[in-house]
Write a structure and sequence with these properties.
The chain has about 160 residues and is of the alpha+beta class. It is built from five helices and six strands; from the N terminus they run βαααβαββαββ.
Length: about 160
């Protein structure tokens, strides 16, 4: 009997394909992984219900929508350990793509997209700077991106009976 909490090789193959192209028809996924389309549909539904697949999204080119500037902002907060009040407030800023609690001198690390330096300055000053509990920020502007992907890596193939934990 298959344990539905484990990502097995077939699930990993399906996840790899869906991450490459979420619009790939189930019949093509089924052909690629050697399962019936109904089995692929069932596995996809189970992965969705378990929260392994959290949703499907289009990957938009930031240049095409004039959000050319990428910056990472380290934030020191007045939050006590375990609090997330400031992080939640910063996550509500539309240009903030990611908010991470981090270890070290800073409390949070933000990933921000902006049109240009003036727009980034406005975000830092008018949006982040007005969040109660933000003590300081330190901004790093990205000059060139070598790799940026939302895709997670799964083994492409493994010996029969192998499970991915």
């Amino acid at each position: 009997m298959r344990d539905d909490r484990i990502i097995d090789v077939k699930d990993a193959e399906i996840l790899n394909l869906v991450q490459q192209n979420a619009r790939l028809p189930q019949t093509e996924i089924a052909r690629a992984v050697g399962l019936a389309p109904s089995a692929v549909l069932e596995r996809l539904r189970k992965l969705e219900n378990r929260g392994v697949i959290r949703g499907y999204a289009a990957l938009v080119d930031p240049e095409a929508v004039e959000l050319r500037m990428l910056a990472f902002v380290a934030v020191r907060t007045a939050d006590r350990p375990g609090e997330s009040r400031v992080g939640q407030a910063l996550a509500a800023v539309p240009e903030v793509l990611e908010v991470h609690h981090v270890a070290g001198d800073d409390c949070l690390l933000l990933k921000i997209r902006a049109r240009d330096a003036a727009h980034l300055s406005q975000i830092l000053r008018d949006r982040l700077g007005h969040v109660e509990g933000v003590r300081s920020t330190r901004t790093t502007i990205v000059l060139e991106t070598v790799k940026e992907t939302p895709r997670l890596t799964f083994p492409a193939s493994a010996p029969a009976g192998t499970e991915v934990a």
